[in-house]
Design brief:
The chain has seven helices and seven strands. It is of the alpha/beta class and 247 residues long. The structure holds nicotinamide-adenine-dinucleotide.
């Protein structure tokens, strides 16, 4: 029997108020964990926490800010205990310009949330996990880290970085009983994809062997597997959830 039980585990899910993050929060709490929904979407975050009762709490959080991570760690530990699971899910996707037209501001914005945010999250949570005997980190990258797409150099760069940082952290943290893996969604049906044109959406679906966008729940199921005892011997690995698009 495959063991997905998370009783007694304490999770932080960044960007957990909606989309893929909310599906991850539901999957982890459904398996027995308590979860902190961390992000800047107060209405959605509080509503999800309310729905999940004493299994979850919402905390306002900015992944790009070091101080915000210190506060989040403190609040998580006070409410539920030290974190044993971190899912670095928060991300932004603001494509549309080629390499010559991408502004340095657009580049920096993506860096701050997707790359620096993931680094700060691992840095903060892994320190706490080292002290408490171990843990699991999952970083949400993208298939944009496996193949190039036009007009999104800023986004893609950060997702390649997430892929690399995951492997660096995995080799350093294994000795501390901390596993670190990355998940690479393809085109998943969330509001993030409102940024793409209808024409591109149709092309992507036509190029996807399974012929559709994925569901947030299908990404969450992979995260649940990775953080659970079923994934206990997996670290430094990449899990593509894309309906075959990148193959
Ligand atoms: P989404 O826009 O619904 O979720 C992103 C979340 O990140 C939001 O809750 C947002 O408030 C939060 N966020 C943004 N900046 C933040 C900050 N500074 N601090 C804290 N939280 C912040 O989109 P989604 O599709 O659910 O995306 C989740 C993750 O999956 C992202 O990392 C995204 O890059 C990745 N991804 C999504 C797709 C897709 O097709 N939807 C594909 C590949 C990868």
């Amino acid at each position: 029997m495959v063991n997905h039980e998370l009783d007694g585990q304490v999770a932080i899910v960044t960007g957990g108020a909606r989309g893929i993050g909310a599906a991850i929060v539901r999957a982890l709490t459904g398996a027995g964990a308590t979860a902190v929904i961390a992000g800047g979407r107060d209405t959605d975050g509080k509503a999800l926490a309310g729905e999940l009762g004493d299994r979850a709490a919402y905390e306002r959080h900015d992944v790009g800010c070091e101080q915000s991570w210190d506060t989040l760690l403190e609040r998580t530990t006070e409410q539920f205990g030290p974190p044993t699971i971190l899912v670095n899910n928060a991300g932004i996707y603001r494509p549309g310009a080629d390499v010559t037209d991408t502004t340095p501001e657009n580049f920096d914005e993506h860096y701050r949330v997707n790359q620096r945010g993931t680094f700060l999250g691992m840095r903060t949570a892994a320190a706490a996990m080292k002290d408490s005997g171990g843990g699991v980190i999952v970083n949400i990258s993208s298939i944009a880290s496996h193949r190039p797409y036009p007009n999104q150099i800023a986004y893609s760069t950060t997702k390649w970085a997430v892929r690399g940082m995951t492997k660096c952290a995995a080799v350093e943290l294994g000795a501390h009983n901390i596993r670190v893996n990355s998940v690479h969604p393809g085109f998943i049906d969330t509001t993030m994809l409102d940024a793409i044109t209808d024409e591109w959406n149709a092309q992507v679906i036509a190029a996807t062997p399974l012929g559709r966008r994925g569901l947030a729940e299908e990404v969450a199921a992979t995260v649940l597997f990775l953080v659970s005892p079923a994934g206990g011997f997996i670290t430094g690995a990449e899990f593509v959830v894309d309906g075959g698009l990148a193959s």
